[in-house]
Amino acid sequence: MVKQASLLSQLQAIVGADGVRRDDELSNFAVDGLTPQAAVAPSSYEQVAEVLRYAHTEGLAVIPRGGGTHMHIGNVPGRYDIGLSLLRLDQVVEHEPADLTVTCQAGITLDRLQRHLGQHGQLVPLDPAWGEETTIGGILAANASGPSRHAYGAPRDFTIGLKVVTADGRITKAGGRVVKNVAGYDLCKLYIGSLGTLGVIVEAGFKLAPTPKVERTVIATFDTPGQACAFAADLQHRRLSLRAVQLLNATAASAVGLAQQGLCALVLDLAGTPQAVERSRREIGELAQDAAADLRDEENAAMAWQSRMRPGSAEEPYLLCKAATLPTHLPALIESLETVAGPPHILALPTVGVLYASWPRLEDAEAAIGRLRTAVTALDGSLVLERCPLDIKPRLDVFGDPPPSFDLMRRVKEQFDPKGVLSPGRQVGRL
């Protein structure tokens, strides 16, 4: 084990005195109750590489981070020596409006990138929560997506290139800065969602979309999630100008004032040209009338439920799960989750087959988690515990039982990070 004084001296020689975080800032880098010996904020890719070369030589564990909004995702780290902040790598590297592409550094926040692109009538189709804090690198590392996944897909679908620093300190590239990248393996898809266990993303390139000319939100209320999911499926088949389709169960819809007690809410975000949005709104109205659903326009249908999941908020959930299954199984999955562990707040993407369920307090969380996994598995789904009590988290694998591909995943980890330098223990099977 390297002594802290020697560690700080070596890190200061690499990143400079202004790049080493003070001792009183180390608590900001804590992950699941573990605090590093030191934390650094490099200002160049070369400094990131040098930090990792030093950590690799000394066998020190490094956990990269951006805005910290996704650090609750993943297993408890096996060990943790150096916190690596990417917030000083926050520039737009290249933007080609005519080609609808952008390349940016990993530490730039989503909101700042969108403001830059908005000046040119463009956007990167990412909209996870807390865009003012979450960084591009953090979004990719966690494979985080938001409601617009309905129209644009997940981050893997429009990421065209990455620059990644490996565990032993090599600066590498995957993909490129143009849309048509056809040579070699698509390593971008491997790095995205790896939680920083295979490499540190320092730069990313994306395909862009034009900013919609008009945006409009309507809310339809239903007696049951099954009715809402059927309505959403009907809308999807009609190819309307829908950017997002979100379903809140009765508990969540009532809590944020989107529906009366006992009703669930389907939030429909329309976006596109004025003519397309108007036609879509008219057709949705006709379908809602046929389905006997109440429909209303909403000026600001901000998802207040997101505040309940925000770290440190008064309504931060005791337990937060992300489940995925076939869209056709989603109504049954919602029904199961509402009965096995008490009434949760549920936000679902019915056309995608993904939902988030949160509970403010559970009597026996560990037993409830077991029942939740059983319910999801019965519907051929998967369950990830995105947030759970720290007193039980070390005893669990938040991703559940390792998948059949786990041996391949283990061998990939051994090839990319043989010394276990990067975020050890945080991935599936505590890789």
Topology diagram in text:
Blueprint: H1 4-15, E1 38-40, H2 45-58, E2 62-65, E3 82-85, E4 92-96, E5 101-105, H3 110-118, E6 122-123, H4 136-142, H5 149-152, H6 155-158, E7 159-165, E8 171-175, H7 188-191, E9 200-207, E10 209-210, E11 214-222, H8 225-237, E12 242-248, H9 250-255, E13 264-272, H10 274-290, E14 294-297, H11 306-309, E15 319-324, H12 330-340, E16 345-349, E17 354-359, H13 365-378, E18 382-387, H14 406-416
Parallel strand pairs: 1-3, 2-3
Antiparallel strand pairs: 4-5, 5-9, 6-10, 7-8, 7-9, 11-13, 11-14, 12-13, 12-16, 15-17, 15-18, 16-17
Helix pairs in contact: 1-2, 12-13
CATH topology of the domain at 92-210: Uridine Diphospho-n-acetylenolpyruvylglucosamine Reductase, domain 3
Would you tell me the structural class of the helices and strands? alpha+beta
Can you tell me the CATH class of the domain at 92-210? Alpha Beta
Low-confidence stretches: 307-314
Overview of this protein structure:
The chain is of the alpha+beta class. Among the domains are: 92-210, Uridine Diphospho-n-acetylenolpyruvylglucosamine Reductase, domain 3; 214-297, Alpha-Beta Plaits (2-Layer Sandwich); 306-395, Alpha-Beta Plaits, CATH 3.30.70. The protein is 30% helix and 23% strand. It has helices at 4-15, 45-58, 110-118, 136-142, 149-152, 155-158, 188-191, 225-237, 250-255, 274-290, 306-309, 330-340, 365-378, 406-416, and strands spanning 38-40, 62-65, 82-85, 92-96, 101-105, 122-123, 159-165, 171-175, 200-207, 209-210, 214-222, 242-248, 264-272, 294-297, 319-324, 345-349, 354-359, 382-387. The strands form four sheets. It has an eight-stranded antiparallel sheet with strand order 14-11-13-12-16-17-15-18. Strands 4-5-9-7-8 form a five-stranded antiparallel sheet. The chain has a three-stranded parallel sheet with strand order 1-3-2, covered by helices on one side. The radius of gyration is 22 Å and the shape is globular. The relative contact order is 0.12. Mean pLDDT is 89; it is low at 307-314.
